[in-house]
Specification:
The structure is a single chain. 43% of the residues lie in helices and 10% in strands. It is α/β, with parallel strands linked by helices. An 8-stranded parallel sheet has the order 1-2-3-4-5-6-7-8.
Length: 369
Amino acid sequence: MKKQSIQAKIFLLIIVFFSQTNITAQKLGELRLADWDPKSQMIVKETKVMKPKFPVIDIHNHLRDLDKTEYYLQQMDEAGVWICIGLDGYSRDDFYKEHLKASQSVSKDRFHIYFSPDLRRIDEPDFGQREAQKLEEAVKMGIRGLKIFKNLGLTLKDNTGRVVPVDDARLDPIWEKCAELGIPVMMHVSDPKAFHAGPIDRYNERYDELHQHPDWSFYGSEFPSKDEILEQRNRVFAKHPNTIFIGAHVGNLPEELGRVAMWLEQYPNFYIDINARISELGRQPYTARRFMIQYQDRILFGTDTPPNAESYRVYYRFLETDDEYFDPTPAHKQQGRWMIYGLYLPDEVLEKIYNKNALKIFSQFKGAN
């Protein structure tokens, strides 16, 4: 009887153990990936950089909430930002005039606004010439550059149903007008590789974002490939050598700095900014540091995040310190489940990226003559 009692107790313990394990597994299985927010147990150095070593020109931002213009300036002052470029001066409905008025009423020197052509009208006769003329008039009012959004080459279609390529000849007068006026073209074409290269599945490294925003995926036969779009863009660089082009988001290919380096070598009129891509650069710190030192004369500072002192400070920490394994999310938004590492760039490189390279581009402005 005693032996049977012991066996019964052991059997009962086994049942309890497996039932509890099953309950725990069920609870674990209920956690959605979107809700998983792990806290790192790493204890590493944390450097707080309240202001940058040199005044900053933020070459890539969006200031379209015009009621916040005074707040933007206050945040810029707090973070040591000298000039901020707003890229939302839409030609459509003459919004650029409203944007200029709001920005200039707060400061005529601290904000630069870029003009964005109304590409929906590309089928109209003499579209390029007419939009170029409108750009020239806008420059007289205070516009200081041109912005191209990613719908060009990707989703924008003309009346034939064809996706308008980046190198469409109807746009040539606009590129040439920018050269004539001495203003740069900020060009964003295509999105992160993960948005183009495959479906939204377990192999996609940006699954979190794409699961929440499936419309951000441009994978499939209905879209031109990322490489095709970038090749169209590069043909524009070659055809218009007197126009300065700034490739947004590290030339729209931060995942392949070797190819970006090749383009910088090939096209002297091509610059890049780092906006919203320190998450990509910071996970390849050795390669990124070498790249940024080698091409220090062609790289511009930008954030793509409406002015916010704490967001700026993440960028400063990334560029100026050798801190390890820190979260880039406060600088923009979550773009992947990885941490980043600081580049501790030399001072002469920092100053060029923070402001000198932008000033060199600004010095070519001829629009006021």
